[in-house]
Design a protein that fits this description.
The complex is a heterodimer of chains A (481) and B (343). Chain A has 481 residues and is of the alpha+beta class. Chain A has four domains: 101 residues, Uridine Diphospho-n-acetylenolpyruvylglucosamine Reductase, domain 2, CATH 3.30.43; 121 residues, 2-Layer Sandwich (Uridine Diphospho-n-acetylenolpyruvylglucosamine Reductase, domain 3); 104 residues, 2-Layer Sandwich (Alpha-Beta Plaits); 95 residues, GMP Synthetase, Chain A, domain 3. In chain A, the strands form four sheets. Chain A has a seven-stranded antiparallel beta sheet. In chain A, strands 5-6-10-8-9 form a five-stranded antiparallel beta sheet. Chain A has a four-stranded mixed beta sheet with strand order 1-2-4-3. In chain A, helix 1 runs antiparallel to helix 4. The longest helix of chain A is centred in the last third of the chain and has 21 residues. Chain B has 19 helices and nine strands. In chain B, helix 3 crosses helix 6 and helix 13 runs parallel beside helix 15. Classes of the chains: A alpha+beta (481), B alpha/beta (343). At the A-B interface, helix 2 and helix 5 of A face helix 1, helix 3 and helix 4 of B.
Chain lengths: 481, 343
């Protein structure tokens, strides 16, 4: 239990934090408190919308260095105060919410590019850097991170590491975990450690992967070395319309089986094609919209594109929408996420993203769709498949209620019920609870169902690394305070 | 409340993160509250709980904003030029704070000072008026350079010196007093019977072309930023080739929407215009949009200026006397740069 704000102990702790990072970097004001009480998770947004106060942190602390992070962790351990790391705050799972108050460790001051190594093709940076700023800095040096998520302008690199984020070009360049070379981490007890300098080795288990996706529950990632890439000479896109999702999925799987190495594939189901592709791209057609792209030397891109189009034409498309439609999709790829194109209050909505093998992904889709539509006939279910692997792909499904109950408790109950039913349906069919947004507060209760006895392994790691359970407690299925 | 006119902006911005990478104050302070999202959340909270209009931290946050138009301009790009007006929301919130009697003492004192200074003097002769506002006067070399360049083409001009034409009062949230100052200035200028009014400070330019229009004020005179006037002189320059690091003005780029003349002038001078920093979207003006930020939050302006200096690679050129003054060394205004190389 943290000391009350009007207690002298509150001030004692504040003084220690000020000593660690400087007075101007410890804030208990109402404006920052409000900002840190709401992330991109629908529940706190709804809570605020209904005029209620979401849980606020007691202290917002802005460390400027790894050493300062370590000092803060030692203070937090001394007094057993919860610490919740915060990057851009744009996570959709409630992972950065200070649900028990305590310290928000806002990492945005740690925003330096440390080194761009043009021999290795890597960049080392502090994790509080905004992803767009990092990309701009790398581009200025003539390279690219090739990490282009819709949240590139909102999120910090640390946020992507914490939730195993992914970008539009993941099909070729990988998710963030594929881009990481090594990490610097401050453990929950305040030790500064480094993982091995290279990502491939036979020198024991992979510590880097232990922290990636840990969502601030196992430590604070303070520095990262990421791979970077030459800016490709050419990048081209092409789109087809298929009569239905299954036919389009065959084409998409065919592209991956061909090992032509597309940089992106995105397949929209019929309802999303009708709703979003029409609204954002102005293509008013019935069917399933499939777009894909290649990048690299132009003559190779042209050859890859030619072969890919042959695969799609053989799969039975309804219409070849051509390169222009594909380029329009690439140009407008972020527009989907700006208001009013993005779903917003009074709608209740969520992204039920999951991933499965090609053998199972369509069953996952239909099971989730059935779970939503049969139990909540007032809801709409739409989806697209947006990150593709040699073995399967990611389903970015969404449910939308045009209006949620006004009563916040009823609204939360409805919302959570959708998640429970849809995610359990996905797990039953071979999916997982999430692909790139993470677990956070939203899905923690389902972790034991997903992992089964293996959850004890994760809980054991958590207990060993964080004996006082101060790191982001109550998230990812780990116990609360 | 004035913010009630911005309910669509509040509803859209309060949960939107898509422009935070362009929030200059947010990047300098690293505070979550110094972003458009949280500023909209604050406005939303005040609408739901009007007593929060007196919250000292909310008020302080409202006056920490650099009122940069970069975020709005970015949003325009995704909405066919009709992005959400976050700056308008912040100005409305400041008006509500003032009208509720909650303006901080420092704000009230500044407003009184600007209102008292709303009187002007004219000297010289000619059909052209050159307005030397507070920031332009702060660097005498700007007006001197302007005079030297005009003289090369034999253009006679009168200078107007003096105080606030309403911009600073408006930015502080004193709408009525801003409008009164603007009307007073308009009457004064219209009475001079000149044909052209030239200003070096982009904030003054924005006031004259945008704010005055919103007040329904008609100026019987053509208003130009000095870059347009100097480009129109078509002088010969000694420079041929090379490049300069050009710092865009927040007002000229984001409020007036890509005012072309600063770059046209640099082209005439014969230099390539290198975009500043890592991208062309951010505002690196160190708080130009908030006009009086150095008086209210000098520590923030210091942080903003430091960030610009860290990114600077060699000497800079700016269209803004404000930015020139705040950044200090190794920076010239367009007037100074042009005068340095004019034949």
């Amino acid at each position: 239990m943290q000391p009350a704000k009007d207690s002298y102990m509150f001030q004692m702790i504040r003084c220690e934090l000020v000593d660690a990072v400087g007075a101007e970097f410890v804030n208990s004001g109402s404006a920052d408190g409000l900002g840190h009480s709401i992330d991109y998770y629908w529940i706190p947004e709804m809570w605020h919308d209904r005029g209620n106060e979401p849980q606020r942190p007691d202290f917002v602390v802005h460390p400027g260095s790894t050493e300062e992070v370590a000092k803060v962790m030692k203070i937090a351990n001394q007094y057993k105060i919860p610490v919740t790391p915060w990057g851009g705050g744009s996570g959709s799972q409630g992972g950065a919410l200070p649900i028990y108050g305590g310290i928000i460790l806002d990492m945005k001051r740690m925003n330096k590019v440390v080194e761009i190594d043009t021999r290795t093709l890597s960049v080392t940076c502090e994790t509080g850097i905004n992803a767009q700023h990092l990309e701009w800095a790398v581009e200025k040096a003539g390279y690219s991170t090739m990490h282009f998520p819709a949240s590139i302008a909102c999120a910090t690199i640390g946020g992507f590491l914490a939730h195993r984020g992914t970008g539009v070009l993941s099909t070729k360049y990988g998710k963030i975990e594929d881009m990481v070379m090594s990490l610097e981490v401050v453990t929950p007890t305040g030790e500064i450690i480094n993982t091995l300098p290279v990502p491939r080795h036979a020198s024991g288990p992979d510590l880097t992967m232990l922290f990636l996706g840990s969502e601030g529950t196992l430590g604070v990632m303070t520095k990262v070395t990421l791979k970077i890439h030459p800016v490709p000479e050419s990048r081209k896109f092409h789109a087809f319309l298929f009569p239905d999702m299954h036919t389009a999925m065959n084409a998409g799987a065919g592209l991956m089986h061909s090992r032509l190495q597309p940089c992106a594939i995105r397949l929209y189901d019929g309802p999303e094609t009708a709703r979003l592709i029409k609204r954002v791209l102005g293509i008013d057609r019935e069917g399933a919209y499939l777009v894909f792209g290649f990048d690299g030397p132009e003559e190779i891109v042209d050859l890859q594109m030619e072969r890919a189009c042959e695969i799609c034409r053989a799969a039975g498309p309804k219409e070849d929408l051509g390169g222009e439609s594909g380029e329009a999709w690439w140009k407008n790829r972020y527009k989907f996420f700006y208001p009013p194109y993005m779903f917003h209050m009074p709608q209740a909505f969520g992204t039920l993203d999951t991933v499965a093998t090609f053998s199972k992904i369509e069953n996952v889709y239909w099971a989730m769709k059935k779970a939503v539509e049969e139990n909540f006939p007032e809801a709409t279910f739409i989806g697209h498949f947006s990150h593709w692997y040699d073995w399967g792909c990611m389903l970015y499904a969404r449910f939308i209620f045009e209006k949620a109950p006004e009563d916040p408790a009823e609204a939360a109950a409805l919302y959570n019920r959708v998640w429970d039913l849809a995610i359990r349906a996905a797990i039953r069919e071979g999916g997982v609870i999430n692909e790139h947004h993470g677990v956070g507060l939203k899905l923690g209760r389902l972790m034991k169902e997903l992992y089964g006895p293996a959850m004890h392994v994760l809980e054991g790691l958590k207990a060993q690394l964080d004996p006082n359970n101060i790191m982001n407690p109550g998230k990812m299925g780990f116990k609360g305070v | 409340m004035n913010i009630d006119q911005f309910t669509e902006v509040i509803a859209s911005c309060r949960f939107c993160f898509m422009c935070r990478h362009l929030s200059a104050v947010g990047q300098a302070s690293c505070r979550e509250s110094d972003t458009p999202r949280v500023r909209a959340l604050i406005a939303d909270s005040i609408r739901k709980h009007p007593e929060k209009l007196a919250d000292a931290d909310f008020i302080d946050t409202a006056y920490r904003s650099d009122l940069s138009g970069a975020n709005r301009f970015h949003c325009d790009g995704y909405h066919d030029g009709k992005g959400y007006d976050e700056v308008g929301l912040q100005l409305a919130l400041r008006r509500d704070i003032v009208e509720a009697g909650n303006a901080p003492e420092a704000v009230k004192t500044l407003a009184d000072e600007f209102e008292a200074g709303a009187s002007w003097q004219v000297s010289g002769s000619g059909d052209v008026l050159y307005f030397i506002d507070h920031y332009t006067a702060g660097t005498p070399a700007i007006a001197e350079s302007f005079g030297r360049l005009a003289a090369k083409k034999g253009v006679a001009f009168r200078t107007i010196t003096g105080g606030c034409i309403g911009k600073a009062l408006g930015v502080l949230g004193f709408a009525d007093r801003a409008e009164a100052a603007a009307k007073k200035f308009a009457k004064f200028v219209n009475g001079l019977g000149a044909k052209t009014l030239v200003v070096s400070n982009p904030a003054a330019y924005d006031a004259l072309v945008n704010d005055f229009k919103s007040y329904g004020i008609v100026l019987n005179i053509k208003v130009m930023h000095s870059s347009e006037f100097l480009a129109g002189l078509k002088l010969d320059y000694r420079l041929n080739g090379g490049a300069v690091n050009y710092l865009e003005s927040d007002f000229l780029k984001n409020y007036v929407k890509n005012y072309p003349y600063p770059k046209e002038l640099l082209k005439q001078i014969g230099v390539e215009c290198k975009p500043f920093g890592t991208n062309e979207e951010e505002s690196y003006t160190a708080g130009e949009g908030a006009v009086v930020l150095p008086r209210l939050h000098p520590e923030l302006v210091g942080m903003l200026a430091e960030r610009v200096k860290e990114l600077a690679e060699g000497p800079l050129v700016t269209a803004s006397p404000y930015t020139r003054k705040v950044l200090g060394a190794d920076i010239l205004t367009l007037e100074e740069f042009a005068a340095k190389y004019a034949k």
